[in-house]
Design a protein that fits this description.
Structural class: alpha/beta
CATH superfamily: Mur ligase, C-terminal domain
Largest sheet: 6 strands, mixed
Strand order of the largest sheet: 1-2-6-3-4-5
Oligomer: single chain
Order of helices and strands: HEEHEHEHEHEH
Low-confidence stretches: none
Strand content: 15-25%
CATH topology: Protein-Tyrosine Phosphatase, Chain A
Radius of gyration: 17 Å
Length: about 170
């Protein structure tokens, strides 16, 4: 490469990684909270497979990133969650992120959750993020992994941090 090995080593030590690609927060209660950009069926599968390597039980929070993408990917997302989640896991299908525009709002998180009736996991469609945070903080136990997935919404990293903080406060 023509670069001094010491320079390469310093650069590698300084590299912080790619934001929102399996960012992990370890809670005081021994629960790993993960923030990931997964937003389509292939990425959801990959994120859940990686999380499963960390923990036998998963609590997945998925925020669809728009009404048109949710409508377009409904069948494949349903298959991905059905294939990757198992009994004992929980899936929270969060309200769809709306970035504005003139799209048809003819699909909801509840519609997505209804498509997952054959999923072995406990599938929930909370009314809002607060409800999801409270519920996952109450359910998560030491050794579990909680993974927040979604795209386009700049508040998702803060959401993952809120989940970790709520878990730490839970009895």
């Amino acid at each position: 490469l023509g670069v001094d090995p010491g320079t390469l080593a310093r650069g590698a030590r300084m590299y912080a990684g790619i934001a929102r690609r399996f960012d992990r927060i370890l809670t005081k209660r021994g629960i790993t909270v993960i923030d990931d950009y997964a937003h389509n069926p292939d990425k959801v599968r990959a994120a859940l497979a990686a999380a499963r390597r960390l923990a036998p039980r998963l609590h997945a929070l998925f925020q669809p990133h728009g009404f048109a993408p949710a409508r377009f990917m409904l069948e494949d997302l349903s298959t991905a969650f059905n294939d990757m989640l198992r009994e004992g896991d929980t899936l929270y299908v969060l309200p769809i992120y709306y970035a504005g525009g003139t799209t048809r709002k003819d699909i909801s998180s509840r519609d997505i959750a209804r498509r997952l009736q054959r999923c072995a996991a406990d599938v929930r469609a909370p009314a809002d993020r607060d409800e999801a945070v409270e519920d996952v903080a109450r359910r998560a136990e030491a050794g579990d992994a909680v993974i927040s997935m979604g795209a386009r919404d700049p508040s998702l990293p803060e959401f993952a941090a809120r989940i970790a903080a709520a878990i730490d406060r839970a009895p």
